[in-house]
Structure formats: structure tokens, C-alpha cells
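Section handout, structural biology tutorial.
Before the tutorial, make sure you can parse a SMILES string by hand: atoms, branches in parentheses, ring closures as digits. In the record below the ligand is zinc ion, and the chain has 429 residues. In the tutorial you will relate the predicted C-alpha cells back to the input. Do not try to memorize them.
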Amino acid sequence: MKFLDIRDNSFEDAFAAILARSEETGRDVEQIVVDIIAEVRSRGDAAVLDYTRRFDRLEADSVHSLEVTEVEFNEAFARVADEDIAALKLAVERVARFHQKQKQETWLSTDEPDIMLGQMVTPLQRVGIYVPGGKASYPSSVIMNAVPAKVAGVGEVIMVAPTPGGEINPHVLVAARLSGVDRVFRIGGAQAVAALAYGTATIPKVAKITGPGNIYVATAKKLVFGQVGIDMIAGPSEILVINDGSGNPAHIAADLLSQAEHDELASSILITTDRAFGERVAEEVELQLGQLSRESIARKSWETYGAVIVSGSLPEAIDFSNRIAPEHLELAVTDPFAILPQIRNAGAIFLGHFTPEAAGDYLAGPNHTLPTGGTARFFSPLSLDDFVKKSSIVYFSEGGLNRLGRSIVHIAQLEGLEAHAKSVSKRLK
Ligand SMILES: NC(=O)c1ccc[n+]([C@@H]2O[C@H](COP(=O)([O-])OP(=O)(O)OC[C@H]3O[C@@H](n4cnc5c(N)ncnc54)[C@H](O)[C@@H]3O)[C@@H](O)[C@H]2O)c1
Ligand SMILES: N[C@H](CO)Cc1c[nH]c[nH+]1
Ligand SMILES: [Zn+2]
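Predicted structure of the complex:
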């Protein structure tokens, strides 16, 4: 962890190491992922099987055994406690309710005589959702991806999730069933992304791939974009906390660690106007690290990509945050609503001392699949929009064309496109 003061001359250099997180790893990873995608494209199922054996230590004898069966779903429900199912159902309901509000309807406007214009909203036919499974299992990510897809009306939801050692997490399967997932394959990493993008004899090709994942998954999504749609780059988790010296250092330390425990590449940063508060948070993190079951991942993340930064003022802290564009931003200040309008770049914003980021991870309602690595400058959270596409609708009656036709011909002639002009003028009275 770095303890820094934003006003020091050395700050930019010291902080650059934390920011360079994705670039450093990206260079090494890209070639590996390019090779995996090429292998899956040329050898299909055989390559998927080879990589799954290698990276996930799965002893599957044929690619068919990579699909989760109805028997396995039933076994999962038998193994999961009723209160676990109840909690997952609550999350499904709340996430569905939030995403219903994002629904956009097809519309047609008849404001002008003889002309109808509009937009038709069509759900995607088949999507692939990636549910991470390397270092932890994420029933919540199943819900966050599958529920909006189903609310949007997607025809078929294909889920992929790696199962290290072949052990499939029963909660992930229960969440898949409760969220309406249609088929589940126990594959992960770049090979799963490639299989969904190009299709194999067994894995169906999809129109779009959504969902978070580690650096291999994020890189693969970037590389297959164009062949399929992707939602965003949702890579290793991040949290930035803005603080004004108010609140409880132990709570903020816990919030920082909640993201550090995801991945050694996760990044947790506190920026506070109160140096003494920052020191107390740093001490708390040390204390709490030793009590975590995932201590080694969280410690590595905190030591490499963690920081406590002292700023001269709240506006300075806000400017810094807008520059970083964090995936998760906590406004742990006395009056979070007062500074909310100044936040320009963040995947999700958590207000006040009683809104831990984990509330958003599980069941507040908004999606937890969020842009990382500074991409919140231009990407939005996963939403219903990701699961539909829009077509423009244009209708002119004869009267409508007669009214506007001459101007169309005019512009076509300005562009020197004679055939365009004639396609209109031939119809004009
Ligand atoms: N943004 C979000 O919404 C969100 C939600 C949950 C998790 N996350 C993030 O997702 C990530 C999950 O990562 P994970 O590792 O647990 O699971 P993962 O499923 O993303 O990755 C596991 C896969 O990575 C591949 N892989 C691992 N090492 C490799 C290597 N050396 N070469 C090639 N491929 C390799 C394997 O194929 C394996 O199946 C974490 O970074 C976490 O922070 C983000
Ligand atoms: N914080 C993760 C998004 O970066 C989502 C998640 C799932 N489970 C726990 N957390
Ligand atoms: Zn989390």
C-alpha cells in the first residue's frame, strides 16, 4: 500500500504505478489470448476441451459433458439451504424490479402529416453471459447478467462459468435457474469467450457476450468485439472512497478490503482530507486483513494496488476521482448529496456512511457489472439496453414524399449521387 499526499511533487510518479495496472498485465496477456482464440476458431470443441483441462483442471472426456444437465440442477437445489434460496430470490426480485424501470418501448411518432417516424426495440435472440469462477464463485453475477437479459426478452441465455477442479458451485446453478438461464456450460476464460463468439459444434454462437471476468476474459472480450457485441470491459474490481474525516475508519477499511479480496489485481483506494483518519484506516486494514479467509489475495492486492491518499480539500479529491473514473465510488462524507453533482466518471456511486459497496454487489437493485480500468469515462453499467437493439422506422406517404422530396434530391445532388436523387425524383409529381 502506498500512503501518498496528492500535493507532493512526487505524487504523480508514485501513483502512476497503481494506474498502470491494466497496461502492465495487458501486454503479457494479449498474445496468450490471441493464441487461445485462434485455436478455438480452428479446432472448435477440441481446443475448448484442451484449455478447460489445462486451466480448470477439469477431467471431462467429451465436450458434451461440459454442459450442465437437469440432474445436476436438481442435485444443486437439493444441496442448497432454504434460506440461501430465499436470499437469492430476494436479489432476483430486486434486480428485476430495478431493470424493469429501464425498459424502452417501441415508438412511432405521427407529429407530421403523411410521415411516420419511430424506433423499434427488439430483444437480442441469443446472448452469452460470462460468470467468473476462477478464484471465487459468483451467484450474484449470474443474477446481474441473466435477469436483465430475461427482463429485456432475450430468446436464449447461454451461461458459461469455469469450475476449477470440476466442482460446480450449487449456488451458481440455483441462481441460474432462478434467473431463467437456458443452458449452462462449465467453461471459462478466453476459450469460453471465443467459443461463444464463433460457436463450436457444441457451444452455440451468440449475438453478444456480457459479464465480468479476470484479465484473460476482459482481453478476450475486447478481441472478439465486432464478431459479437460486448457490454464493456469489466475486469478486476476497484473501489475508490472519498472521505472528509467523518465516519468510522473500521467501516471504510472493510469496504476497501471487500474489493481487494476479489483478485490480486483488484485496486482499493481511499482519498481523504484528514491525514489522521487515513492513518487509522491504514491500521484497520492491516488488522482486518489477518482476519480474512482470502487474506493472501486481499493482501497482495492491497500491497500492490492499494493506496491511502491525503488531499488538501474535497474538490481536489473529487477532481482526482473524476480522473480515475473508478468502477465503484463511495462518498463517505457528511453530506454526500451535496457533492454528487460534481461526480462525472464512476460506474456506481454509493452515498453516505451506511451504503457499503457490497449492498450494490448483491441486492440493492442496480447492476454490479460495471466498467473498470478507467472505462467509466465512456461505458455505463450493464443495463437492459445491452440486451436489445433498435431499428429506425421511416414511413412517407405519397404526400409526404412530395412535400420533402425536392430537398432530398437537392442534398443528393450536392453529394453528386445521381442515383439517390433519381430514386426520389422519379416518384415526385
Ligand atoms: N466487474 C464486475 O462486475 C465483477 C464481478 C465479479 C467479479 N469481478 C472480477 O472478475 C474477476 C474474476 O476472476 P477469476 O480469476 O476469479 O475468474 P474468471 O472466471 O474470470 O477467470 C478464470 C479463467 O481464467 C483463465 N485463466 C486463468 N489463468 C490463466 C492463464 N495463465 N492463461 C490463460 N488463461 C488463464 C482460465 O481459463 C480460467 O477458467 C476478478 O478480477 C473480479 O474482481 C468483476
Ligand atoms: N464487486 C464485484 C464487481 O466488481 C461484484 C461482486 C460479486 N460478488 C461480490 N462482488
Ligand atoms: Zn464485490
